[in-house]
């Protein structure tokens, strides 16, 4: 097989792969995300995980006391970027039961989910933010210091 026929064979396939990658919107690709959750069982706060994840990748977290055979909770978040919003699947398991929900969230939006059989039985408050955003930096107090701010103080006696 000569070089010309080899190029004719592989070039269309390579062009399709490159076109698919380039035509995928940037926000649909993996994007770092921050999740702040509050989990309440019968109105009582039982967990407050704060997690970093990525759009398009499943995030798993669990809390287990030392020596315990069963975790206090197990959380699975599956975020997918779609346009300006994120489709999110939430799965929560507790020793007493479990819950599942699917929802759409915008950057910076907070929602309350009822995962139990009756309202208030198992409730999750969820905040989603893009990590590289002014709102996230403000939340984490990572903003640049303003001019004239005192950076250090020394004292001698």
From TrEMBL:
Organism: Corallococcus caeni
Superkingdom of origin: Bacteria
Protein name, as recorded: DUF2381 family protein
């Amino acid at each position: 097989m000569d070089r010309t026929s080899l190029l004719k064979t592989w070039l269309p396939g390579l062009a399709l792969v490159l076109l698919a990658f380039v035509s995928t919107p940037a926000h649909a690709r993996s994007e770092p995300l921050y999740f702040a959750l509050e989990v309440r069982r019968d109105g009582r706060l039982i967990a407050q995980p704060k997690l970093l994840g990525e759009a398009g990748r499943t995030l798993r977290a669990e809390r287990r006391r030392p020596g315990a055979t069963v975790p206090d909770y197990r959380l699975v978040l599956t975020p997918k970027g779609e346009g300006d919003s994120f489709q999110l699947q939430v799965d929560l398991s507790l020793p007493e039961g479990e819950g599942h929900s699917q929802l759409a969230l915008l950057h910076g939006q907070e929602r309350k989910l009822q995962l139990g059989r009756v309202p208030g039985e198992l409730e999750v408050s969820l905040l989603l933010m893009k990590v590289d955003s002014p709102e996230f930096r403000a939340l984490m107090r990572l903003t640049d210091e303003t001019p004239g701010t005192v950076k250090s103080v020394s004292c001698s006696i």
